[in-house]
Design brief:
The complex is a heterodimer of chains A (381) and B (78).
Chain A lengths: L1 H9 L7 H10 L6 H18 L7 H13 L20 H9 L9 E4 L9 H11 L2 E2 L4 E7 L4 E6 L1 H6 L4 H8 L6 E6 L2 E6 L7 H11 L2 E3 L6 E7 L2 E7 L3 H5 L10 E2 L2 H8 L1 H18 L6 H12 L19 H5 L4 H11 L8 H6 L19
Antiparallel strand pairs in A: 1-9, 1-10, 2-7, 3-4, 4-6, 5-6, 8-9
Chain B lengths: L12 E4 L2 H11 L8 E3 L15 E8 L3 E10 L2
Parallel strand pairs in B: 2-4
Antiparallel strand pairs in B: 1-3, 3-4
The chains are: A alpha+beta (381), B alpha+beta (78).
Chain lengths: 381, 78
């Protein structure tokens, strides 16, 4: 009986989406007859057809209003929670604007690093892993700089405790900073590094310069990860980071490269491709909308994400992004910087076919929306 | 960098359409192949197909509203 139901329901697979079929299968009583089930399916198809968006419906406008109105109720600024051990993230309207504009530099880059099965259970191991991937710069190891004007030398005293924690000695650090310190002789003595000029220059300025230069040398960890925070999520430990470097983190052997994500859409596009970026846009925006207790239908967000990703690269909803792709000069000019568009169009001799909405509003013609969309074709005999 | 066969949660299943399926698709929607949404030939998710310009990539997305949906993108130069 049950198998028969499934067969009938599945025969509608080309007419209804999988989720609808699944819902029908779950909701239908077990003892229903085949003919009644067919009747139900016809009813479902009718209901589905009725709910479909009609051709010519201005979905973009509806979407813009549906996202824009709740947007007015969102918190305008990130608020700070005192004493909560979480990485600070941009939320609310600033975050939505950031995502839709497809900014390349986002305010609070963040990653969620999931670990593979044996590594993610033990708190101590996770903490150790987190400490290992945190970017460490040379300056963190330094406890004292002393510059001798008389000897023309720079003495760097290193923090012994930190060196021991990371199993490093002064010689290892010298290797790392050697390329930055050309023209200097480097010698180490216990926890001290001594910089002396190779030639005979009187310039103390060089020593100052080298001091600033070596501060930024990366000693260990993954570039860009400024803070790390292991937290428990459900049954496992994950590492939250501020700062991101998806490409390098995914290549680490302990990392679960299937679940680890970043909140930087552009980075996701670079590393995982356009479809992943589209999904990330939807996830990020929906997360913000949900966290604010608002209710925006996900279809509107999906539409925006689809438009942003239609050209194969992520384009923001800005005058440089999706708006610049519009075919009509008048439509582009009506958005922002009208003179620029009009001048360029005049220079290039651009032709406007008046096929879309805004340009037809501007010249007072019927817009191709709803009943304005279909044209009539007469067969000439 | 290898991506473990692109098993990342964010990446839906990509596949390359063969010529007859491509023709069927274009006839169904009555469109030119370059009217489809685009994907660059260097997109990390499709480098394994070695796709040429004009090929059509089928994407089977997980959708919150429909279960799964098929989406098509035409390969363009990056």
């Amino acid at each position: 009986m049950k198998a028969e139901h499934t067969k009938i329901i599945n025969s509608y697979a080309d007419k209804l989406p999988p989720l609808v079929l699944k819902t029908v299968e779950e909701e239908v009583p077990g003892n229903i007859s085949a003919s009644n089930l067919s009747k139900i399916m016809e009813g479902v198809i009718a209901a589905y057809k009725y709910a479909e968006v009609h051709p010519g419906e201005s979905v973009g406008l509806v979407g813009a209003e549906s996202i824009g109105e709740p947007g007015t109720q969102m918190t305008l600024n990130t608020f700070h929670l005192a004493g909560v051990a979480e990485v600070q993230v941009t939320t609310g309207l600033p975050r939505i604007i950031e995502v839709f504009d497809a900014r390349k530099e986002i305010k609070t880059p963040m990653m969620e690093i999931y670990l593979k099965s044996p590594h993610n259970k033990n708190m101590e191991k996770v903490r150790k892993f987190a400490a290992n991937i945190k970017e460490m710069k040379f300056e963190e190891f330094v406890s004292e700089y002393s510059l001798s004007i008389f000897d023309q030398t720079l003495k760097v005293v290193l923090n012994k405790g930190l060196l021991d924690d990371n199993a490093l000695v002064a010689k290892d650090l010298i290797k790392l900073i050697k390329t930055k310190a050309k023209g200097f002789n480097l010698t180490s003595q216990n926890e001290e590094i001594l910089f002396t000029h190779k030639g005979k220059t009187e310039e103390i300025k060089d020593l100052y310069a080298i001091k600033e230069k070596i501060k930024d040398v990366k000693v260990g960890g993954v570039k860009g990860l400024k803070q790390v925070l292991p937290v428990k999520r459900n049954e496992e430990y994950v590492v939250l980071t501020s700062g991101n470097n998806l490409k390098d983190v995914l290549a680490l052997p302990e990392v679960d490269s299937n679940r680890t994500t970043s909140n930087d859409i552009y980075e996701i596009y670079k590393v995982l491709g356009i479809e992943a970026a589209r999904q990330a846009i939807i996830n990020e925006v929906y997360k913000v909308v949900e966290s604010q207790g608002l209710n925006v239908n996900i279809r509107h967000i999906m539409l925006v994400a689809d438009v942003m990703c239609a050209s194969g690269v992520v384009k923001g909803v800005t005058r440089y992004g999706v708006v610049s792709e519009k075919a009509s000069v008048l439509a582009r000019a009506s958005f922002e910087t009208p003179l620029k568009h009009l001048f360029n169009a005049a220079l290039e001799g651009e032709v406007d076919d008046l096929t879309s909405v805004v340009e037809n509003v501007m010249i007072n013609q019927p817009v191709p929306i709803g009943t304005g969309l279909p044209g009539l074709i007469t067969k000439m005999k | 960098m290898t991506l473990d066969g692109n098993k990342h949660l964010l990446i839906p299943k990509h596949s390359k359409l063969n010529e007859s399926d491509k023709k069927k698709l274009l006839e169904e929607y009555k469109i030119n192949v370059f009217s489809l949404p685009k994907i660059t030939s260097e997109d990390p998710a499709i480098v394994k197909f070695n796709a040429k310009v004009g090929d059509v990539i089928k994407i089977e997305r997980d959708s919150k509203t429909a279960g799964t949906t098929s989406y098509y993108r035409v390969v363009v130069e990056s």
